[in-house]
UniProtKB/TrEMBL annotation:
GO terms for biological process: recombinational repair. SUPFAM superfamilies: P-loop containing nucleoside triphosphate hydrolases. It comes from the Bacteria. Pfam families: AAA_19. The chain crosses the membrane at residues 144-163. Residues 1-249 form the UvrD-like helicase ATP-binding domain. It comes from Salmonella enterica subsp. arizonae serovar 18:z4,z23:-. One of its GO terms (molecular function) is 3'-5' DNA helicase activity. This is DNA 3'-5' helicase II. ATP binds at residues 22-29. Keywords: ATP-binding, Helicase, Hydrolase, Membrane, Nucleotide-binding, Transmembrane, Transmembrane helix.
């Protein structure tokens, strides 16, 4: 039995859509597990939760901990966002929009020939495409699909297109899943953020978990701005924080806090385990 802190209990007990910001070592996974277990208690056998983690390893660990807490995850999905796009959206419903193909496989954009790359490069402009997703011409992507080819880099966009244009897909998702949890939301991409908001608008409880100070994938088009936008009072999401680092020594927490904010309050500590050392050198 975990002795949750007051901050953790408040976040766990809140039953609606929310955004949870959590510092390193704060026990956020334990909070997510407890919330999922409570959600599953109210699910029928054909229902479940969507639990999105950034890596397969993190997803496996989350599922393992949930199954340890409850013997039946029912019809839940545990996995990465790309796995969700493929297994729950694209593979099941693309045939309703574009017809069926016998053998479908995923290839990277750079594996296409130069002519195909030239024709398809416009699909990297995901923000402009999503603004008119209902009417955008996916002709070139559709032609490759007819040959059994899906482009890896376009999977998020294609999944969002299907969700927006397939009533059957939206009905399937909303009937099967009662809530969605996305961890590491500070590294969410544009389309992932749109999908999260779409499911929220469709009535699915939506829980985002992250830390704006831990965003490390800006080079890959990920941004903490989407997590920040959920913290806005007008977003429709109630914000919660868990701020106690249970993993690190207080002196290390103090050092990290001052790196982020030179005016940050310091914890009382009787030992210093981290030091700053400046070394002069000639290497560049």
């Amino acid at each position: 039995m975990i002795n949750f802190t007051h901050e953790q209990k408040v976040a766990i007990d809140y039953p609606y859509s929310m955004v949870l910001t959590a510092c390193p070592g704060s026990g956020k996974t334990a909070v997510i597990v407890e919330k999922i277990v409570r959600d599953l208690a109210g699910c029928k056998e054909y229902q479940g939760v969507i639990a999105i983690s950034y890596t397969n390893k993190a997803s496996d660990e989350l599922k393992k901990r949930c199954l340890k807490a409850t013997p039946n995850s029912k019809s839940s999905f545990f996995g990465t966002i790309d796995k969700f796009y493929l297994t729950e959206v694209i593979y099941q419903f693309i045939k309703q929009l574009w017809g069926g193909v016998d053998d479908l496989h995923v290839v990277k954009f750079n594996e296409l020939n130069s002519s195909e790359q030239d024709r398809l490069s416009a699909f990297f402009n995901v923000e402009s495409i999503c603004e008119k997703i209902d009417e955008y011409d996916f002709k070139d992507v559709k032609e490759l699909y007819a040959k059994g080819i899906l482009i890896l880099e376009f999977i998020p966009l294609l999944a969002f297109y299907i969700l927006c244009n397939s009533l059957s897909c939206r009905r399937y998702i909303t009937k099967k899943y009662t809530s969605i949890y996305i961890d590491e939301y500070q590294d969410a991409g544009f389309v992932q953020h749109l999908l999260f908001l779409l499911l929220f608008d469709l009535g699915i409880k939506a829980v985002a978990v992250g830390d704006v100070d831990q965003s490390i994938y800006l080079y890959a088009g990920k941004s903490s701005k989407y997590l920040t936008s959920l913290l806005d009072k007008k977003s429709g999401f109630t914000p919660f924080k868990i701020t106690i680092n249970h993993r690190s020594h207080s002196s290390i927490i103090n050092y990290a806090s001052r790196l982020l904010n030179e005016k940050s309050d310091l914890l009382i500590t009787d030992e210093i385990r981290v030091y700053r050392k400046l070394v002069n050198g000639t290497q560049r």
